[in-house]
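queue> holo job accepted (guanosine-5'-triphosphate)
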Amino acid sequence: MSPVEKASVSANRLAETFAVSTSRGPTIRKVLIAGSGAVGKTSLVKVMKHNLPLLGIDDDTTAYHRTPFVELETVRIKRSSREGVFQMVDVSGQLDSVIHPLRDISRVAMGSVSVVLLMFSGSNVQSLLDLSQWIETLTDYYSKTRSKKTQDFVLLKNKADLHDDIDQTLIDAVMNCNSRICKYHELSCLTGEGIKEMIDWLVARYMMIEEAG
Ligand SMILES: Nc1nc2c(ncn2[C@@H]2O[C@H](COP(=O)(O)OP(=O)(O)OP(=O)(O)O)[C@@H](O)[C@H]2O)c(=O)[nH]1
Ligand SMILES: [Mg+2]
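queue> job finished
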């Protein structure tokens, strides 16, 4: 089975799972993580799934294994009165590769997304500059599909634990040029810095309050 077929099968299985859980009530939100290779997209999914920083997860979690195409993962979140599921779409960072989910299975990757996390690494200024190509691809898709809902974009600077050589004015410029970007977070998947704040923000914005009783 080709990677494209495999991803479609996984997406259908997820859809079936969600169809069951929807009837029971929890909010389901689809979250796309975009950004260059090695910025930490897959790491963020692991950290959210385990509710632990990379350093606290008990296996070979810090080794770099490039995501070849796309991974779909569900993350259950519970915060006092709010509970729900984030369906995480973790795509390959190599936007120019021969096959890429944003081009070859665009609806699976980008359709029905509530929020796009645009991730770059604080130790790699090029990964911030690369985001313009991702933003162009995404806005092109959303304007063509004339989606009624406006997808939020959130800018994430990962690897806050490393030496940072990016000027804040460059980050501000990226935000100012893209009106869809509604929030900026700094975090470290390695140490967990800023992760709780980011998840709390996502939950407050996208998870509905559960009815009591
Ligand atoms: N120092 C540091 N390293 C990190 C952090 N987050 C991720 N890494 C490391 O960065 C490398 C790449 O992480 P991945 O999560 O695989 O990157 P990715 O964006 O999914 O990469 P692609 O799948 O190629 O698109 C791994 O070795 C991670 O352990 C962080 O906050 N700090
Ligand atoms: Mg990856």
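queue> The CA atoms of residues 118 and 155 lie 5 Å apart.
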